[in-house]
Write a structure and sequence with these properties.
Order of helices and strands: EEEEEEE
CATH architecture: Sandwich
Number of helices: 0
Organism: Halosimplex carlsbadense 2-9-1
Helix content: under 10%
Family: Belongs to the small heat shock protein (HSP20) family.
Number of strands: 7
Shape: elongated
Radius of gyration: 17 Å
Protein name: Molecular chaperone
Oligomer: single chain
Strand content: over 45%
Structural class: mainly beta
């Protein structure tokens, strides 16, 4: 079953994988471009339906941890793009916890 997002774009973390769901109804797969550029997921979709009738979607998603770029996969079903971005196992969590003195 395909997850239909409540918003145009949703980001989830699930067992070491970030999943990005993008609602792109009425686009054909060949009209959608997905890329990993400068540690961001970029999604673009373009459809020209004739004079004065075109649709354009452009969005970037920042991911809070390093990603194994070679392991990124994408599927498109029922108008929803589902991109899986595996967390780089060698990356440590960003930042550090700071103790509060009392």
């Amino acid at each position: 079953m395909t997850h239909h997002p409540d918003h145009d774009v949703e980001l989830y973390r699930d067992d070491g994988i970030y999943r990005v769901f993008v609602d792109l109804p009425r686009f054909d797969p060949e009209e959608i471009e997905v890329a990993w550029v400068h540690h961001r997921l970029t999604v673009s979709a373009r459809r020209s339906g004739g004079p004065g009738s075109s649709r354009v979607f452009d969005h970037e998603v920042n991911v809070p941890r390093a990603v194994d770029a070679d392991g990124i996969t994408a599927t498109y079903r029922e108008g929803v793009l589902d991109v899986e971005l595996p967390v780089d196992r060698n990356d440590s969590p960003p930042g550090r916890r700071i103790e509060i003195e009392t």
